[in-house]
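Sat 14:20. Reprocessing the chain from the morning session after the first attempt stalled halfway. Input below, unchanged.
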Amino acid sequence: MSQAALSRRRFTQVAAGTAASISLPLLAQSPWPNKPIRLIVPYTPGGFTDQIARIVQVGLQNRLQQTVLVDNKPGANSIIGVDALAKAPADGSTFAVVIAAYAANTTLYPKLPYDPRKDLTGVSLIGVSPLLAAINNDAPFKTAREMIDYARRFPGKVSFGSSGNGSAAHLTTELLKAITKTYMVHIPYRGAAPALTDLLGGQIQLFFDAATGLINQGKQGKVRLIGVSHDQRLPASPDTPTFIEQGFAGFTGSTWAGLLAPKATPSEIVQRLSQEVSAIVRSDEIRARFAAMGTFANGSTPAEFDAFIAQETSKWAKVIRDAGVTLE
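Finished this time. Tokens:
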């Protein structure tokens, strides 16, 4: 074999080997998402969190062209589902939709099976749902101001229900008590439905809940809506004033929904998913659907959502400690 032919042969072998060394890792790195995505919902089907998750589920399937499955894992005020996320592979295949209870749990539970800061990271704030305050039609007051005046004159005569100790409804009412320096009796229930039943029946006088659970009751005249715990009115209930409008400066309290990922999930996946979720919830169609639910669509960066969680954690930690809230 001539020297020229030998050189050509060696060049071909080297080139082939180089191509193989480049193509193998490229073949191994399939673009995300390369398998179905699981959205953990730490609550039962049908509630606020589940409704939000299923809206996002459909949007992600359409945009990513990948199967997205909702996995309901209720229990322990969302801790079971969040713990499942913390222990899931950080490969971009598992995420969770959480609400305000996630921030409150850091204070309510001295020993969580996961570390929110070390094991989990924010992806995007999906939406914020201010709470509506509803009173029984036969209550001896008709407005928020009248209710607070009554509570001051008759400490302990106003009873309020919540969907459970440490829930957004409970903590929001405790914040109102602190701001107005009133004493009202808390009656915790196992969920919003039984609390609403007792509100209608007159066993309790006051109940805060997400708008989805109260707007229709108010429109039908079954309860009186006296205020929104936000800095702006809800498009779905435009005649209901905010508490701030009624003179209760600084009083806000909402539930919200956001997407979490295991902490070690590659940042490029977290950023990509954040962008996709933001595009979904900022679309005109989803904004309208959220508005009908009494929810303001958001869509944030991961850093913005992490900062929001830190702020919520600090806010509710103070309320919990000042009010002496326990889970007993």
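The CA atoms of residues 20 and 26 lie 10 Å apart.
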